[in-house]
């Protein structure tokens, strides 16, 4: 049954999965050009001063990519399920409702994770090509909240789509936007280095209302 569920998700994502991958590769290409321009045109000394002293972030092109990828996958996974109330069929399958629901969510989060991993590895390779390990470490800690933002962005989008009541949709969307904005708004490098674990734990809170909204969708409540 889980193979059938995985195939269903594949059918929904097979033609759109490549869009976030193209976006992240485009962002990495732009970042590589920026580093190369500063390094070869202005000079490696100025590149080091800009990064280590002036605290410039040359990789802003990657800032919104995880959030975009998360929302993209959630939209194409759950809008077809919730339109026409097809999601109710999920609750009549010969598998526990909770497992089937989290299986779908897990596939969407895994797709988002693939985009984030490609972005993180690509950025580390670009920065490592021009700068020492310490700079790579700083870049990873700077981008970690951006990648982490994909988690609440995905689950928040799922909640907005799945919950049948507009007040709840608004509440889920509003809280998710506030939290995601906090994660991606850092203007200095390594701003979240010492608080990253607390934000990671806070992201887990978005898992809790998923099953509640699914139950409300099954019952068809309107409040």
From TrEMBL:
Keywords: Membrane, Transmembrane, Transmembrane helix
Transmembrane residue ranges: 16-35, 100-127, 139-161, 197-217
Superkingdom classification of source: Bacteria
Protein name: ABC transporter permease
Organism: Pseudodesulfovibrio sediminis
């Amino acid at each position: 049954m889980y193979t059938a569920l995985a195939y269903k998700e594949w059918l929904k994502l097979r033609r759109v999965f490549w869009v976030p991958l193209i976006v992240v590769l485009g962002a990495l290409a732009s970042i590589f050009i920026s580093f190369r321009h500063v390094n070869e045109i202005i000079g490696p000394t100025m590149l080091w001063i800009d990064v280590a002293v002036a605290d410039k972030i040359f990789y802003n092109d990657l800032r919104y990519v995880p959030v975009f990828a998360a929302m993209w996958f959630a939209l194409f996974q759950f809008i077809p399920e919730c339109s026409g109330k097809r999601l109710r069929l999920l609750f009549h399958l010969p598998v526990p409702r909770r497992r089937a629901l989290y299986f779908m969510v897990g596939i969407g989060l895994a797709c988002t994770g693939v985009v984030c991993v490609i972005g993180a590895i690509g950025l580390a390779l670009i920065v490592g090509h021009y700068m020492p390990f310490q700079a790579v470490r700083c870049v990873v800690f700077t981008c970690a909240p951006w990648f982490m933002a994909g988690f609440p962005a995905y689950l928040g989008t799922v909640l907005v789509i799945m919950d049948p009541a507009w007040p709840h949709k608004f509440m889920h969307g509003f809280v998710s936007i506030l939290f995601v904005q906090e994660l991606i708004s850092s203007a200095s490098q390594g701003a979240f280095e010492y608080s990253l674990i607390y934000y990671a734990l806070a992201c887990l809170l978005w898992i809790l209302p998923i099953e509640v909204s699914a139950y409300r969708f099954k019952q068809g409540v309107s409040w």
